[in-house]
Amino acid sequence: MKSLFIAGTDTDVGKTYITAGLAVVLRKMGVDIGVMKPFAAGSAQKKGYKSEDVEILSRAAHACDPENLVNPQFFPIPASPYTAWKKLKIKPRIPIVLSSFKKLTKLHEMILVEGMGGIMTPILKDYFITNLIKEMKIPTVIVTRSKVGTVNHTIMTIKMCEKYKIPVKGIIINDFDKGYPVKDLTKDLQNLTGVPVLGSIPFIKDMSDESLNRIFKKNINLKLLLK
């Protein structure tokens, strides 16, 4: 089964919660799911994984893989890997990220890899999230929002995937901040990009397994996702 890279049109579009929801519903379907967030940044947690996002993903997947595999590099400031490198003098370790991903693929049937920020978030000066996806050789799912302006961001994201020859499995609309009717947005995105919209997820209050499984099973075209 092919692993997937969950990319976003921007930061704060809900990639972590979409990835967690996918991890839960696929696990409930009997898929041996592993998760990975190659680069994470922000304030480190005092207990468990340094990154709260990584903890959310691991809990959703019921995965207990070592932190150095699931999150090979953590930057203790809220910044892109490139900016963190310049400020902290800690160079992003791309070869270690790629080797960690390879190890995880041997431990699980499928890996959900969550990106950082938007798809052109810089890792090095001339190396972006797109380059990382390309080197991992896996297709991507694009998470977008329903706020006005999302069409522009989504089209640009799809165009960059085309430029880097990254297969796009589909788009998931995270409908947490409203503004653009989902029915209209779905039709417009599919007509403008030629990429299928896999579904839309409403604002989620209950992050329990039961809630996530029910919501994602109901709202996401899982057959198309796994095709």
TrEMBL record:
Annotated Mg(2+) binding sites: T16, D53, E114
Main subcellular localisation: cytoplasm
EC annotation from Swiss-Prot or TrEMBL? 6.3.3.3
Q: Which cofactor does it need?
A: Mg(2+)
Q: Which domain of life is it from?
A: Archaea
Catalytic activities = (7R,8S)-7,8-diammoniononanoate + CO2 + ATP = (4R,5S)-dethiobiotin + ADP + phosphate + 3 H(+)
Associated pathway: Cofactor biosynthesis; biotin biosynthesis; biotin from 7,8-diaminononanoate: step 1/2
Which positions are catalytic residues? K37
Tell me which GO cellular component terms the UniProt record holds.
Answer: cytosol
What are the boundaries of the signal sequence? Answer: none
The entry's keywords = ATP-binding, Biotin biosynthesis, Cytoplasm, Ligase, Magnesium, Metal-binding, Nucleotide-binding
Show the InterPro entries listed in the entry.
DTB_synth_BioD, P-loop_NTPase
GO MF term list: ATP binding; dethiobiotin synthase activity; magnesium ion binding; protein homodimerization activity
Under Pfam families, the record lists: AAA_26 (PF13500)
* A Gene Ontology BP annotation from the UniProt entry: biotin biosynthetic process
Per UniProt, subcellular location reads as:
Cytoplasm
Residues where ATP binds: 12-17, 53, 114-117, 174-175, 202-204
Quaternary form?
Homodimer.
Protein purpose: Catalyzes a mechanistically unusual reaction, the ATP-dependent insertion of CO2 between the N7 and N8 nitrogen atoms of 7,8-diaminopelargonic acid (DAPA, also called 7,8-diammoniononanoate) to form a ureido ring.
Which family does the entry's similarity section mention?
Answer: Belongs to the dethiobiotin synthetase family.
Q: Which HAMAP family match?
A: BioD (MF_00336)
Protein name from the UniProt record: ATP-dependent dethiobiotin synthetase BioD
